Amino acid sequence: MRASNCYSLPSFLPLAGLVLSLFLSPFVAFAQSDSSAATTAPVVPPAVVEDPTAPVKLKPTFGLGPGMFAFYGDVGSQHGRFSPLVTRVGYELRATTPITPWLEGGIHVVHGRLGMNERSLTRNLNFESRITTGGLMLRYNFLQLLNPNRVVEPFINVGFESVEFLTKTDLRDAQGRPYHYWSDGTIRDIDENAANAGDAVLLQRDYTYESDVRESNLDGFGKYLERTWAIPVGIGARMDIGHGFDFRMGTTMYLTRSDLVDGITQDSKGDRAGSAGNDRFLFSSFSIGYTVPMKKPAKKAKMTPLDSEEIDAIAWAGDEDGDGVQDISDNCPYTPAGVKVDAFGCPLDGDGDGVPDHADDELNTPPGAAVDARGVAFTDDELLKAWLAYKDSGNVNMVVSRVESFGPMKPPPVKVKRVYVVKVGEQVESISEDLIQKLLSIPDIRAVEQGDTTFYVVGSFESIPEALRRELELKGIKIEGRVMAEENGRLVDVTDEVNAERAKMTQGAGEAPAQGTGEVIVRVQLGAFRYPLSKNIFEGIDDLVILKGEDGLTRYYTGSYKEVNPAAEHKVKMLLRGFQGAFLVAFRDGKRISMKDAGAKLTGPETLNSAPSGSIDKSKLRYRVQVGTFVGNVPMETMSKLIEMGDVKPVISPDATRYYYGQFKSRKEADDAKAAIVKKGFADAFVVGDMNGYIIPADEADQLMKQP
User: Fold this and answer.
1) How many domains does the chain have?
2) Is the pTM of this model over 0.90?
3) Distance CA 537, CA 577 (A)
4) In this predicted model, what pLDDT tens digit does every residue of 234-280 receive, in sequence order?
């Protein structure tokens, strides 16, 4: 049997008492002041003056505003750690009217999303529910207890509302792979105790709540009703802001009659079981309301006794600055008193330097001379200094070298270095799993990118015969290769040269292909990702091998070891670099083998329990805002905005200069900064990540930031 409907409010009452005391403290102090001060005019004009005996008039008020939900139920039993103001967003709508001078009633509606995530070593639950409430609400404003000249009006409210909820949970990622929570704190696509746990791929929660809790029926509750009713109880404050508008803020606890809002009850199975009592949720909000006027405002009285003809006469003959020129003909109004003016009312300028005589410290400036604000001519040194300052601040393109005057000099010839390699595969889109295993079993495999194609090559030989012998060795493990030349990172076809050398080597008895050696190669798989990552993240890993399989995942490998122990040490280094999903894989003669067959002494599936804690150094990860990209000179107006903005760093590349603003620890801070920058006229600004000084996409920075 489910527990009786009893509500405990330990988490709500302290908050209510604190807010209520903050609201009432100024009014209590007002009431305790000396009564002799009653004849003194108040500092703040009275905003609300109510007469409890006056008849109530119909004054409909409509309000709308945003708020935040906080959940108190079975999921997230440690909710005391979370702020009720940093959760999911909702919106409220109200239509009210006074019933008495101290009581207001009306309709109240709330809609939004309510949710909670619980993560621990023993229980991992989450949900998000679309909530809609609607019903009647009464508001009491403490009129009998407060000073009638109050500016802020505290209130309490209580009501009766219907609640509808549609609850979902996040059980799978975007590819439909289920989340398995391992004891080391990671999420993978295979159970930790499964036989093939070594093939597990590290997952990240996508926070897309795709699974309907009621339809999943994980606890056997069947088709229960996803609606109930609740009693909302709350506190708040109201303030008139003029012209029929008011501002309200408050917090309301909804005491529901259901324990199924989160889909968990005390009757749930296993470690999903919750506690007794119904679910509750808190809605903290602010809103703007408008009271519809019920009668037309009185017309304003005439402010001047003058008729239109008298006003026209004053305007025609007026001389506001007293310079003797009527305002209608005065081209320079507000001339200082006593200053001599011309026929158009403008101060005299005898030397024609643009500075009036009354403000000119040098009345006989030579014609055409540049002057300062006081009419004094600049010296040659002052002009040079001003020009250099303009050049430095304005990024003026000055010709300062022969290169800019006559064009770049002819670059020196590039020395071509040729070596010979064995090409064993190439990739444009994806390659088969069988080929991936063969390539990874070659200890000295590496990648050469050429256009949109990645070539996989083996070795680096000074002569063709050495390369041909390696080609024969690869055939022994059924890997077909082709000898090519590599010149400064580009592959060159040398078929004719290779055929000639091959003919010399095969004269006589010939040479039989070598057989498989049985050699074990152990590598570290850094991770498998749905979308390729920026290469900046792998800065410093020179032996990186990138392979995209037919399953659409891009896998990253590093290291090539013949023994397990050095490979394990390399794995720990990669964990410290932040690659949390790193694990060991082994290959022999073109096939993947288990770590046990590779010589590792394992008592069960490989886990990361021995990985050092705090292995991800998030202190080096920051968010920045790319303000803009400029080719050539930056316009003066734009440069002024960048200088005014401050903390803007230019990064120069061969094709352009990019300007980045700030260094933020969270994505929200960067998004807020971007919004402010867009308002300043930089419409193309966007957020990027900065890891160890290298720019990466913001989405990849988000994924790295989510790692524990």
Assistant:
1) 4
2) no
3) 10
4) 999 999 998 999 999 999 999 999 999 999 999 999 888 888 899 99
